[in-house]
Amino acid sequence: MNEQGQGGYPELSQSIMGAGVSGDLPTMSQLTATDVPELASNELLVPLSDDFLTSNGFEQEAIDDIYDGFLTASVYDGERFAMPFSKSTRVMYYNQGILDEYDVELPTTWDEVEALGELMVENGDDRVAMGFENGFEMEFETMARQNGAGFIDGETLEVDINSPESVEALELIANMFDEGYARTAGEDGFFSGPFGRGESALYIGSSAGVAHVQPVADENGLDWGTAPIPTLNDTELTLFAGNDLALFHSASEEEQQGFVEYVNFLLQPENTAEWAMLSGYVPIRESALEDEDYLAFLEENPQQEAATTMLSYGMSSPTFLGYGEFRNALIDAMDDVAVSGMAPQDVLDNLQQEAESIIESNN
Description:
It is found in: Cell envelope. InterPro entries: Bact_solute-bd_prot1, SBP, SBP_1_CS. It comes from Alkalibacterium iburiense. Keywords: Periplasm, Signal, Transport. The chain is an alpha/beta fold. The protein has two domains: 9-88 and 239-315, D-Maltodextrin-Binding Protein, domain 2; 90-238 and 319-362, D-Maltodextrin-Binding Protein, domain 2, CATH 3.40.190. 47% of the residues lie in helices and 15% in strands. It has helices spanning 9-22, 36-41, 50-55, 60-64, 68-71, 96-101, 110-122, 137-146, 164-179, 192-196, 210-219, 253-266, 269-279, 292-300, 305-309, 323-338, 344-362, and strands at 28-31, 75-76, 79-80, 83-95, 128-132, 151-152, 159-160, 182-184, 200-206, 224-227, 238-247, 314-315. Strands 1, 4, 5, 8, 9, 10, 11 and 12 form an eight-stranded mixed sheet that branches. Strands 2-3 form a two-stranded antiparallel ribbon. The chain has a two-stranded antiparallel ribbon with strand order 6-7. The longest helix has 19 residues, at 344-362. The two termini are 37 Å apart. The model has no long low-confidence stretch (mean pLDDT 94).
């Protein structure tokens, strides 16, 4: 095996696209779900159906043991084109000291987050209840879907971004900014730093970010932990992120079989659990949560446990041709709210039109 690193996600994507153009593709590669539509539509990837996997030695029982939200991440035009590998989910980091100071329980709903924010503002606290990353598009999409919005349907590509349910979710976020209940990371780039310095009671970020929060929080003597993200409309939902493993069409039959054997090895319960312990990502298979070493790891590292409690109800955002362009438009729309102070209804009306135009021109 000839293994080659390509840097971060953008560099990896560029390398894959360049190899596709030149015809010098590797046997397999890590990629993000956003890469799949373009590569699959150009017939560069091998569809990884259950039949293909099982005919090459991957047991159906093992496939069924993988969390559904991971398996659907790399579906394009009704077919799966990659297998999950390094995956994360959103979690809520909390500062127990601030919660104790205000004698409040750990919030589990967005109403409770707002109530904490109101309490802190009333007391003249210059800290905030909730911290968001500068890019909080995942939080908005999660809240919109929790509230019943279709957002973008993965099968029909019907756009439902400016529905009343979506607008209500974004208005909740905008109101928290306006009232001083929440803020973004700003010049820090990511909110792990401000949270670790004690500048917020709560913070929503990636479960893989524990390694970034921990040294800052420990340096500042914080009593902190992680919890499932708050619910809206009593709906439990979180979004998955991370990367998958794909097989390129230029691979020989022997290489294709080797790919399946390799992925099968990586996703053995004890191996996906070990990778989660070493990397900060989450286990891919349900049975990995029963691994004795992983259970012992969670006992010693309780900040890693919240992510695992949400795996059963997590989902991956549907991707499509033009998704990268849409994602950039979504990020810009969040800036229009957080930075420019535009009304959520106007922002989402504009984003609805952009999304429909992007989908129509690419699909």
